């Protein structure tokens, strides 16, 4: 058990130190940065179609990072990431679809609106959840219930009366013709979209790094290890959990908005039972606490999943399931944690 | 593909060069201090990578044309696993049958220029009655009644050779290749797969989609890429898209005949149980609008979410409403459990549907008498006893002896692929825009169900509709038929994709006649 | 009179459905804190076993018992191989069981195709005036109550039950007192797994027997267990199914199936907010102590 953060907390923090210090970055952060550079270079040599496909893999990363922060670091498992993903996506569709006069404004307003909606839901639901002091194992199930309610509700909004402004919610068929990101007079598709997605994801990753390599991150770790003790040190555990939940929700919202800007389409299925378990799987295989591991596993599992499916391989699910079992049973905390540990004990 | 063989040549060349440098004994390349295997792996990787990267870069550049493909590629996405697999597998097998037949040099009879056009068959009168007009009395006198009028329930014998020689093996001298990844009943995967087939594999035509959600997931990509797309499934109607051809049956072709039949035969009071999503809700809206026009009324409606599989409460509601017949618009494996549960609870109402039996073969899956007294206005069921269908069914089960059924959507897929091949042959090219224009010339294709007419303006198909009825032992009889019912609703909405291309789906609320019908009915 | 009977019947069938969906999970999640995402697949395999045996001529009741035994055995295997590595690490157990569920569901699809031959619903229908019902559902209501009674007897009246409860409450102490905790865990998991198989076999006639049929039971099972809480598993089971059905039934009658489901989900959320340790803890506090 890692006792370093608790030891640090026990000492009074001198005022000069501040919230975030550059020297607290870990080796893996530099590795992830290198990875992003490599991805950017890769994006310049591949075809337009491949860039578009790569954009799809990458846009899932913020949601996984949010869950890594929430589950890996703070110890709160949530199945609700896809609820925020879906809500943000639908909200973007509603807002951007209604502002037809100014396309640039439409997409920007959509982005802001989508993230805001995710934040509001997280604050409301999180308040309900964390200030009610429910037991830890109940959180995953309650968040799953929330996701299912949302998915079921959206599934039956099929009729013409279910519209906001001039945008039909679409029910089970989904919301279609969602406007893409419009920047500098251009709709983003293909390679430009890839670079836009990459830029947003890198910013989201930086946000996660800042949160985690700061004293806020320390409190989250302490919370996971022993929440009672952390509270006795004077930290408001419920507020910390709520904040963490909200940040994770915003990150999931980022993924959701990027998704609809990529595919111009969203269905209630994206908040269904199968989709809800995917982020959990990505984070679990990546070794929950390692951002490098989570990024790599999210990308790898998405690529693997698609390659298996598109090649007509019927064993896709069986292989995925076996992979999960193996990843959990192999006694390390995910392979990349080992790698990170090799580079230095600051893990 | 030529580019790959170039890569191989380059790698071979480097390998030969490396070979000459390698120390014969240790296998090491002295200057580099690497073992030969490592070097080759690395070098070939770098070379291959840059070749492929360079190749893709070239492919991505629009100015340079990609080399002409050696096959005609049909992109085909269906759910081969997951919840919808029992439907998807049938369609996949039907597609394989059609492609095999085209490659063997066969095609279905039919031609452009409407019903009655080239090679379309009409119905042969085997022993028609002989008549004479007496102008004075105004009577038409039967000279000879011709013979038994009820041969298999059909007055005129049908010519059974719908499968005829196409004149070439394959299509335009090339083999037809079916590229069929598995959609796994997952909408996101559908998006990715359709992108791959359209943008990377550059298929000549896309045939895909079971649920409307799947279709709507890929239609934006289809529209943006101007991809020729066939949606061969029954659905709630309304798609007006210049690149999409919908060859499945729609509400006006099935709802109205079945509702009319039920009201005439069982009484005016109907109760609807529908799946609680777009298809169920919209079809139920059609039922609600048109039942009063044929003299009936809907006394209750129950909408059931797709995930629900227990129907005790719904059954109780049906019982307390005491209808004359029940309209069941239930979709998916979970919801089909209604039938055995209702039978076990002692419900004996006659049932009507536009979906069940013909697609999910409930009458073969569930024990008798769960589907007794079920009526469905189908455009196709495997049990249709015409000569042309019997031959088709035989062909299908010869190729797929382990399949449990051959359903409505599978047959739609089959004739749609043949229709595409005929259009390509007439166009002389696989260029998608040209083929689209050719498809808009008013085709008739002789399908196993009967003659199907692809209407130019609406891109939808007319169908031969038969009223199927299941008895206590789940045997099927066809008690009424309508040789041609057009998909007239889009015409009423003024859709003409030849003149005014569109890319949307209409709903009943956009039809001014629906509220008018409600008003008429309530008088 | 008929409508009263009808409403009672609807209430009973909803509650029985929740109880049967949850009974395997009550033991595994409620008592062992293992979030078993393969619960639906265990029920599915129970149904598969029942279907195979039934169509080989075995009478239905025997098929149900066989499903219980088969799944109990499978549970022992699963526990020994995988689950026992994750005690105390419930969240990792969650991922492992999810992996297992993927393998089982897709594996069954690959081995046996999209669905199996269905089992006809036994016993036929009865009628009171215009209200007709299925005798089988009456039987299921009775069986689910019997199962709960059996569980209560096992856990509160037998030596095994005492040891099991002690282990769940305070493992190290129980060990110090001579309880073979490893054995208790194994048997408990086997029991939970067997009960899931039993429930799957019982529900098999009412549903299509297909690889993904387990999905329909997963959410109701978890919601029932969470609403019930872990303080007193029996009280929790009865209390939560009663409470949830009480929420679902009238809303379905008045507003339709969808609203009924939403009402049940919201009721469960509200209850967890007010009673974070579940209904059983409240029942225990108010009435049993």
> Roughly how many Å apart are the termini of chain B?
69 Å
How much of the polypeptide of chain A forms β-strand, as a percent range?
A: under 5%
Most extensive interface: pair and counts?
Answer: A-B, 40 and 46 residues
Domain count of chain A? 1
Radius of gyration of chain B: 28 Å
SSE class of chain B: alpha/beta
How many extended strands of chain A? 6
Tell the overall outline of chain B.
globular
Distance N to C terminus of chain A: 11 Å
Q: Would you give the CATH topology of chain A?
A: ABC transporter involved in vitamin B12 uptake, BtuC
Main sheet attributes: strand count, strand direction, barrel closure of chain B: 7 strands, mixed
How many alpha or pi helices of chain B? 16
Largest beta sheet: strand ordering of chain B: 15-14-16-17-18-21-22
Features:
heterotrimer, B: 523 residues, alpha/beta, Rossmann fold, seven-stranded mixed β-sheet, five-stranded parallel β-sheet, 16 helices, 23 strands, 20% strand, disordered N terminus, C: 289 residues, mainly alpha, two-stranded antiparallel ribbon, 12 helices, 2 strands, 3% strand, globular
